Amino acid sequence: MTDIIRSIVYGIVEGITEWLPVSSTGHMILLNEFVKMEQSEEFFSMFLVVIQLGAILAVVILFWNRLWPFAMPAANPEPIRDKGILSVFVKPRWIMWVKILIACVPAAIVGVLFDDELDALFYNPTCVAIALIVFGIAFIVVESLDLKNAGSCASIDDITYKQALIIGCWQLIAAIFPGTSRSGATIIGALLIGITRGAAAEFTFLLAVPVMLGASLLKIVRFGFDFTGMEVAVLLAGMLTAFAVSIVVIKFLLGYIRRHNFKVFGYYRIILGLAVFGYFAFNK
User: Fold this and answer.
1) How far is C-alpha 114 from the geometric centre of its chain's CA atoms?
2) Which residues contact 194 (CB under 8 A, 6 or more apart)?
3) Residue 49's closest CA among 167, 200, 178, 203?
4) What is the pLDDT of residues 162-179, one digit of tens each?
5) Please, what's the largest Cα pairwise distance for the chain?
6) Closest residue by Cα to residue 172 from 98, 218, 103, 119
């Protein structure tokens, strides 16, 4: 029962930090120092990734009308081809899915080929702290720049295939360096190429679905499907908590960015990075 409670704590942290551009990895590393599970190291490594499935479900529910590429004929503004009474293709959504998959390609290739090697090289407090601070500064700098093309792309429907690939390359940075924050990297990349904060955040949420689903399935396959009853309970508790918290956080962020910029997250990342440095420097 104790590990189930700990799993709920991890789910709360995951649900908050996965969507805010503050790095869930940095928070998980610190949390693991104070809230340690009584499970195997292999299970815990898998748990930290698979718990994201709950966060994914929140995106699917909140953005269902954006994600589901079929609709009733009367509700379909641009059908590609009528497939009968029940459903038709919705062209804008299929185009959006193509853009999402294009953005997934760089990180997917690197993740499949070098996932374990990258974790061994960079998944440590020092690298995570550096990534937190560097991208914290990046947020402050980018938000302070007078970008010529700022806000030229106000909707995810306006994102081009080229822009989607550029965002995917920024996501690759997060795949290589833990602590960067997947949402943080993609939002910064999107802002630099003229995409508004709202569209950048929304595209980041949608992009998370195939990315996090693929990463979770990869971890489960490598761990194996031989779960104990307690392991299943721990996973479900974390996932359900991450789902509930993610619903609240995503709604909050979408409302927040309509009135504010991302500088506050930059300052927070710098403070967190220094905290990670300081904690592990004094506890070696």
Assistant:
1) 19
2) 147, 149, 150, 151, 152, 153
3) 178
4) 999 999 999 888 888 888
5) 66
6) 103
pTM: 0.84
Nearest alpha-carbon partner for 208 in 71, 37, 24 = 24
The whole-angstrom distance between residue 142's C-alpha and the CA centroid of its chain comes to 20
**Cα of 208 vs its chain's centroid, Å:** 5
Residue partners of 192: CB distance under 8 A and separation at least 6: 142, 147
Low-confidence ranges of the chain (pLDDT < 70): 1, 71-88, 147-151, 284
**Three-state SS at 181:** coil
Task: Report how far residue 282's alpha carbon sits from residue 78's, in angstroms, rounded to the nearest whole number.
Answer: 60
Residues 187, 9, 252, 134, CA torsion sign: negative
DSSP state of 146: -
Residue entry with tokens 């690939």: 165
Dihedral over alpha carbons 263, 267, 270, 271 (to 10 degrees) = -160
